[in-house]
Amino acid sequence: MKSDIRVCGVWRDRHERPVYTLSSSCPECGAPTENSAPAPFNPEDPYGEYRRARKRRVADE
To answer: Which residue intervals make up region (Disordered) (predicted)?
Structure first.
């Protein structure tokens, strides 16, 4: 599901807090915007086992 609400793609570098908009560019700095919605959750994640194993390996290092 795609969200209509977008956030400035470089807000961490240029703004104190996120700048939300409906347009494809930031109204304050003109930078491109990105979708503000989180990635969808899939309970049947086919790669979840591998992703969690990698996360454990990185935490052990």
So the answer is: 21-61
> Using an 8 Å Cβ cutoff, are 22 and 61 in contact?
no
Residue 27's pLDDT is 93
What's the rounded Cα separation, in Å, for the pair 54 and 61? 11
SS3 assignment, position 9:
coil
Sheet bearing 20-21, strands edge to edge: 20-21, 6-8, 33-35
In one-letter notation, the amino acid at residue 35 is N
The two three-digit tokens of residue 15, written as one number: 């703004």
7 with 36: CB under 8 angstroms?
Answer: yes
For residue range 2-59, list pLDDT tens digits in order. Answer: 568 999 999 999 999 999 999 999 999 999 999 988 777 788 888 889 989 999 998 8
pTM recorded for the entire structure: 0.58
